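Look over this today:
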Amino acid sequence: MNPSEKYVLTLNEEQLRDYFKVHLDCPLPIKPGERYYLLQEELLELWKNVCGIHERDVETKYIFDDDDERDFQLSEDGYNELKPLAINLSYWIEQAKNEFLDRSKSITSIMANSNIYKKHFPHKKMDINDLKKLAIKKDAGYFFHNISSMELDNILIKTIKPFFKQIIESETIRYGVKCNKQMGVTDKGNSSQYILIEINKSSAISHAYPCSEEKAKYCQTSKGNIGNNEDDKRNSEQKKETKLYYEL
């Protein structure tokens, strides 16, 4: 008997219900007003899938996106049904949380700012002409001085949703975004509302930079062999291409 099971055995019926609520909530903040609310549907599905792999009986039936529905289901089940399921839960829930957080690491990546990744941020406030000259000289896109890291982080959260599956399955992924305003200048010195976002799973750091419309629209990633037959397996260089582009 592990310490978690011993603890469960001390709980009364109401405490058992609270035990399920606490431990089966998605490990990332996905409720209204919280950081990952826009990704609630995708993250909750991932959480259910991970828990479904580990559950010993039907413990995941208490996972809901609506608190009232979850509370109703828990209230329908009495002590004799809740107790053995809570004991089961005590054995696998921490492993499931760790696996979920590892699989969603790309989603929780931090958008780099001028302190983390200086390449695409001017070191001082510049007028548009000086910024264009700097971009051409350095052969790099630069954000306008008034584009904050908070604004870029909001764009990151909004644009993860359409590429959620590709993002969590990739070590590194890059996709193009058309923003709703001019963001900076490209490496050719042209003003642009297009940016590229790159997410690296290992470092949990994302970064972005202004780019041309062409670069943003033709960003692609390889996603597995075409089909599953033996010919495809023998010709592993054949890859299905997925276009990664989104307009805000």
Remarks:
- Residues 95 and 183 are 42 Å apart (CA to CA).
- The chain has a mean pLDDT of 90.
